[in-house]
Amino acid sequence: MKKNLLKKTIAVFAVFCMTGLSSGPLWAADVALDVPIVSKYVWRGLEANTDLVLQPSLTVDTAYGLSFNLWGNMDVTGFGEEAGYGNRSGEFTELDLTGSYTYAISPVSLTGGIISYIFPGLGATTHELFLSAGADVIASPSLTWYSDVDEIKGSYFLLSVGHGFGLEAGPLTGVDVGLSAGYGSGSYNRGYFGLDKAAPVDLVVSLGLPMTFGPVSVTPSAFYSYLIDSEISDALGESGYFVASLTLGLTL
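The structure corresponding to this sequence follows.
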């Protein structure tokens, strides 16, 4: 039943993407495909895969504030055997479906939506609601609240800032820098880290060097995720993670 639902959901998303390419004003949309190859999979302070992964993403942004995204994590190596769930090289271990709506009154924008996290190999699914407020000013500050309504039933708060420095050096179009900090509620930290208290989770510093070649973009990037709370870092046996990636992008 879950496999059939997943297939139907992806099929509907694909139809919407194709419709978004039409010239009609109602469905006029921008479609973007990104295919990053990433040194390891780290998410909100959790190291989900210590080896190389592919994380393709397909996004449809409409002219009326609606946005849809399909994101996946594919194992490239035999990490699954080490983790105890079998060799899943070349298979998707996670698929995320996101639908959102953005309402903007310059310079402030509000975005709300839902994320479905699907884990095909485990037969598990969970959902998060989210609400984000951002400002189109220097450093582009934003605050996002994520609330898991299924398995974890906890909240994660993300405060982020970032800036892109424009350049004209051949294909290199700029330098993107970012800084974010995450905070988990008691139930969130208990579900993910076994820590029965609310606490700051991770501090992330990122750097990207976007390059364009016509409609194609190539972006080498890296980030460092530092685990803020000592009890979380002790529980995971890590103080932080360095992650490097190379992303090939196409915008239609």
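The mean pLDDT is 89.
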